[in-house]
Amino acid sequence: MLISAFSKVTLSFGLCAILFFSVPVSANANSAHPVRDMLYKQTALKKYEKFKNCIFWQSKNFNVNELVLMSVLLAEHGNEDSKIKNQNKTYDYGLMQINDARTDELVALGYDLNEVRTDGCKNIEAATHIISLEIERAGDVWLGVGRYHYNENGKYPKHHYKYRARVNKKLDSLLKVAKRSLRLMHLSSGQ
To answer: How far apart are CA 78 and CA 92, in angstroms?
Structure first.
């Protein structure tokens, strides 16, 4: 059941991703990306609107779909300059809640843990870098996204699958708003 749900979302995701970036802009549109802007105004992404350019550019820089990054950000629901203690005595840092278990990896990639915690854009950059590496290693977007949180071969694989489901749910809610926005733009253009 989980596989078929992810396949369904992948098809929907692909269609919406194509539409998301190729919507023609009308003469009275305020932005080159009206659907993206709508997502930041009508969803929980509103909290992160000041970071939308960081998310956009890091998605391009590391070749991770922007909607995936938005969904991970919403699933993590972190705050800039946060340090949250987990039950297993590790800490999660910043907007994308990067776990300190990745400290050696972050340093090897050229990131400073304090900067990743206190600078929202640097946190998004580091998280996107890690996600891109996990996707590359896995050879699969959803497996890589799940591994950002927890490896499916670890002691508690349910954490991996629950996380993927949580990110998937966030993606689904973004896709609904995006599709509704596309319909409204289509209707308002008189077509």
So the answer is: 9
